[in-house]
Every structure is written in C-alpha cells, then in structure tokens.
Amino acid sequence: MNTRKSIMLIAAAALLLGASGCGDKAGSVAVDYEPTLGDSYPVKSDDTITYWVQLHESAAKNYNSLNETEFAKALKEKSGVNVEFIHPPVTQVSEKFNLLIASGELPDIIEWGWYNFTGGPHTAIEDEVILPLNDVFKKSAPNLTKILDEHPEYAKDISTDEGEYYCFPFIRESDYLNTYRGPMFRKDILDKIGCEVPETIDEWDTVLHKMKEAGVKIPLAAIFDNNILSQTSLFLGAYGVPGGFWVDNGEVKYGPYDQEAYSSFVKLLAGWYKDGLIDPDFVDTENSRVTATNSTPDWGACESSCGGGFGTYIPAIKSQDPNAEFVPAKYPVLKKGDKPKFGQKNFNVQLSSGCAAITTQCKNVELAAKLLDFGYTDEGSLLYNFGVEGDSYNMKDGVPTYTDKIVNGDQPMAQTLAGYARASYFGPFVQAENYMKQYAKLDVQK
Fold first, then answer.
1. Do the Cβ atoms of 388 and 197 come closer than 8 Å?
2. If we measure between CA atoms, which residue out of 262, 252, 29, 248 comes closest to residue 131?
3. Which pLDDT belongs to residue 4?
4. Rounded to an integer, what distance in angstroms lies between the CA atom of residue 248 and that of residue 118?
5. Cα dihedral sign for 23, 14, 234, 231?
6. What is the dihedral of CA 156, 159, 164, 165, to 10 degrees?
7. Which end of the chain is more exposed for a tag (fewer CB within 10 A), N or C?
8. Is the pTM of this model over 0.70?
C-alpha cells in the first residue's frame, strides 16, 4: 500500500473532512464509449460541459465567475469546448460541496481535493459520485497519459490503492515550485531595535518582545489553522514534529500525539498571545481579513506565501511606508546551527486541491475528458500559465514573458493574472517553473 496515500486516508477519516457518503456502496460505474472527437484541438461539439470549482480569491477580486475572465473565453476558443463554470460562495465552499454531493444532482466535472472526501477517492468512486478514469485516459487523454508514462510516480499519486485513476491533477513542473511559503521580517524594524534575523525560538522570543516594546502593533502576523500547521509547521517544527501525520523511519506518526513536543509549542504560542505578540485575530483565517491585516505596516514578522501573499503585502506596505524593508528568515530551531526538521514543502502532484474529476452524471464523458486533457497540451500549458499571447504575455527569445500589464498593473499581480491564467493557484495543468520566476519578481520573494 502506498504509505503517503495511506497516511492521507487515515487523516481524512480521523479529521472527518469532506463530504459524507451518498447511500450504500454499489461498486464503480463502468465507462463505455467509442471516441469520436480525435486528438486535435479545437474539438467540434455543441454540448456544454458544466464545471464546479471554487472561485479563487484572486479572481474573485474582479470577477463573479471564471466565465467572465479572458482565461475562460480563450479556453472555450482554443479547446472548442463550451464550458460553464459553477462556483460555490467563497466563504461556504466545504458546506456547498457537501450539499452538492448529498443532492445527487451533479455537474459534469467537480474540481476538489478528493483525498479530503471521507474514505478517499475510492469511496467517491464506489459511491458513484465520480468515475474511474483508466479507460477514459486511454481513449481521450493522450497528453496527460504521456506525462504519466514519463513520470510513473505521478501516476501513483492520482490512483487509488485499487489502481483506479480518479482525476486530472495539478502538477508542479519542478521542485523549485514545491516550496512557496515561509517567514518574513521587516528589516527596517530589526535594524531599529538592534537585532539580527532570529534563528532560534529564544531569539524569536527576544525579537518579538523588543518589537512590542518599540511600539509595533502586531509583532507576529500569522495564522495557525490546522491546514497551515500541517503544511508549514512554523515554530512547531522546531520541536521535531509537524502538525499532522508523518513517516519516521518507516513508522507512521502523528505530530500532536507527541505530548511533550506539542505542549511545548502550545505553551509558546499561549505565552506570546498573552504578551500581545501575536495578531489577536489569528483564528480568523478568512482571506480578505488576513490580506487586509498583512497589507498594513503594523507587523514586524509575518508567515505567508511568497507570491500571492508577500507579492501583495510588500507593495501595499511600501506605498504607505516607503522606508519599509524586508528580509526572509529560516524556519526556527531550538539550538543555533541546527537544521529545521520541518517546513513547508509540497509534492509535485497537489492532492489537497485542484483535482478535476468527471462525475457519474456526466452526459458526454469524452468531451469532458478532452476539455481537461487540453491543460496538458503545449497550447493549454501556455494558456493556464501565461494567458493570452499579445495581451498577458509575449514570446521573447522563445520564452513566454508576462507583459507590463500583468507585472506592473494597478492591482497586485495575483489579481491581474487571475483574469488570464490559473498559474498562481491550482487546476488541471502543469504549473511552469518560468511562471514563478516571473511571479516572484522581488528579490526577497525569490
């Protein structure tokens, strides 16, 4: 059994995430059709594919739906598929997903983190929510199939322990893209209080208290929800455990079960909260609230993503305080010189979101598959990562390069780019390394 997937299935069951099953298990539904659309694009069909997906907050700043974006318009034109995107309310995604599954009335495609489905993707197949895609890949997804043949480790990631493919995944092109979060300090404030960038927990404690004494309103701006703890382990990793399951010399362990380590972490945060060092609203993880807080000059240290996070916060802060300077920090340790045991690093295949599955109620499985497989073509890769040539990017010496409209627009780059491409979040395509090298345009982001 695949250890990584076993861990995630255990986690999903233990945490009771995702949707409830929908009735007695009846076994998987067979997929039987003869391909008629061929391998080239655009395809020719009058059918419409309905596609349920969360509207990312970056896109939600300017659009009510992906249907309104230049990305969607180009996707329809280049793929030839008339796709209709359906979105749950931004603040009720999980609730609406559960209601959707319970209703029994499903769209053609659902993009979700299927390992968060109770029982995992195999249960979603058994409960006749989504289709097993082995035959679909063979018949109608030559581009994704080629990638899976070249990277058998990816094939394992998107298959159940029973050997069923279940989704068209989000894939990161290289390890360069797998680490995209971390801590950042206001260097000008560190200089003011006479401190270097801290490396140990004790040094962090000293720096944060000095920031508070110097009048910094929020010495540490960070959120500590279960998702962030399990992915990032900021501070917790210093005590030798992550926030969720991990494998130690072949043995599956659960970070919070280590009472000594986890209690030390909780006591640390409790003390910092009592002393007013942490954002008092740290439990409110709603994106608009976090963005509003972190876009002010009120914090001294912050943990966030380097692109959509600091790429938004830093320009906003410098517009209010031109003297603001920033410097990234390592994940802290207990003893100076030690190497952090845990930090944020994802896998090349993203399993917690961006997995597009075809439902059992899809009336044209071949067309849905052709739409999703387009993201893995050369033309689809350019669209998903860079948008529309001549508008959001131009080719320079054979390299797709974002235009000034995207890089230096009136809004943060994440919001402008979201109207043309999906590279700054997830979806059924291969995220290009070249995207991030342009997206993280500041040296401190890189």
1. no
2. 29
3. 43
4. 25
5. negative
6. -110
7. N
8. yes
Residue in 277, 278, 313, 279 with CA at minimum distance from that of residue 297: 313
What token pair was written down for 126?
A: 């058994």
Tens digits of residue pLDDT in 331-380: 999 999 999 888 888 889 988 888 999 999 999 999 999 999 999 999 99
Helix (H) or strand (E) run with residue 246 in it: strand 245-248
Which pair of tokens denotes residue 418?
């979201």
Residue type, position 435, single letter? Y
Does position 24 have pLDDT exceeding 80, yes or no?
no
β-pair type (355-358, 251-254): unpaired
Neighbours of 244 (CB within 10 A): 20
Helices and strands counted in the chain (H then E) = 19, 15
Phi, then psi, of 17 in degrees rounded to 5: -90, 160
End-to-end alpha carbon distance in the chain? 37
Could you give phi then psi for residue 326, rounded to 5 degrees?
-135, 150
- In this structure, what token pair is assigned to residue 144? 């994704």
Question: 């090349």: which residue's tokens?
Answer: 348
Query: Is 384 within 8 Å of 154 (Cβ atoms)?
Result: no
Query: pLDDT of 286-329, one tens digit each?
Result: 888 899 999 999 999 999 988 889 988 999 999 999 999 999 99
Cis peptide before 42 (omega within 30 of 0): yes
Give dist(CA 110, CA 94) in Å, integer. 13
Give the residue among 282, 321, 322 at the shortest CA–CA distance from 298: 321
Name which of 199, 198, 245, 200 is nearest 6 in CA terms: 245
Three-class DSSP category at 152: helix
Q: What is the largest CA-CA distance in the chain?
A: 71
Q: Which residues pair with 284 in a beta bridge?
A: none
